[in-house]
Amino acid sequence: MTAAQPAPRTPFRAAVVGTGGIVTGCHLPALREHADRVRLVAAVDVDPGRLAAFRDRAGGAVAGYQDLDRMLADERPDLVLIGTPPALHTAQTRAALHAGAWVLCEKPLCLSLTEYDRIAEAERSTEGPYASVVFQHRYGSGAAHARELLRGGELGRPLVAHCQTTWYRDADYYAVPWRGRWSTEGGGPTVGHGIHQMDLLLHLLGDWSEVRAMAGRLVHDIESEDVSTALVRFANGAMATVVNSVLSPDEVSRIRVDCADATVELTHLYGHGNDDWRYTPAPHVRDEAGRATRWRAPAADLPSSHAAQLGGFLDALEKGERPPGSGPDARRTLEFLAALYKSAFTGRPVAAGEIVPGDPYYRTPHGDHPDWAPNAPKEQ
């Protein structure tokens, strides 16, 4: 694909699709933080009351629409931020791309590798706009610093890692009709919650090569899982454990990577700053050359956030370059999720690159497995 051309106008014209909590609470503040570079011109929502409340909160001349195609035709935005339920993401992303708008979409970008490849086809056919997925935990000074140290070999060779998203969600949470269903959410805590930490793990350690997983429906009466675990081998030889849960009263999000010369650990819940990262030197490490001193968090503290990611997205838009969190980078995380589900449901290891067209897990995360596909008997 040829490089996209920079958008011809600044501040860029932005539109939001969906005006619920994630857009109001995260995307709107992010847009305000970058008000010198981007201006919100339109909002789309099928609920007129919710749309009106959002427009009042957004202030300014934000046009309201109940139809996405009409908004795209009337407003011609440079970028579209999507915060609707997951089942709508693929169609809305493709519509925005075909209208010439770049896209920053909430996770998951889509529900399957089939859908992802349809988005990639839309990118190729438009030869310009790109679609990126919101993975705000990659961003911020602490994450950037850790990745630089790991990728540069400063901590020694990565050996053992742990990725934990142990949260708690009650029955009321799953009373929302689209949650816990394969066709509308795409899975349980694996895709709806743990996806952020797993993406960050891949962002830090690079390509994965093999997954061995388990999943269970232990508490909630839903189609998808409410807990999953995995063992992962990375291309660099490192091995990791992954735990995703919505059954855990003591909630925590954690990434830990043990390297030959140090351990780096991040402990937080929904976002992190520099102080949430900790570096522990191995006993043999001496600091005569100031090596361990370089591990300290940078002086500037930019927390992970939608605003931090939007800043990088706007940088790419200004240059006409593919933004981070898009293309093969986004597909790698989605393929990892598909492999986790396939391994969990088939009981065998899954290798990177194994899930291709014709594989049932390429088309849908449950792979039509009789114990997990919709309308199949639930586990007792």
TrEMBL record:
Protein name: Gfo/Idh/MocA family oxidoreductase
Residue stretches making up the GFO/IDH/MocA-like oxidoreductase domain: 145-264
Family annotation (Gene3D superfamilies): Dihydrodipicolinate Reductase, domain 2, NAD(P)-binding Rossmann-like Domain
Lineage: Bacteria, Bacillati, Actinomycetota, Actinomycetes, Kitasatosporales
Gene Ontology MF terms in the entry: nucleotide binding
Stretches assigned to the Gfo/Idh/MocA-like oxidoreductase N-terminal domain: 12-127
Renumbered residue ranges of the record's region Disordered: 354-380
Species of origin: Streptomyces boncukensis
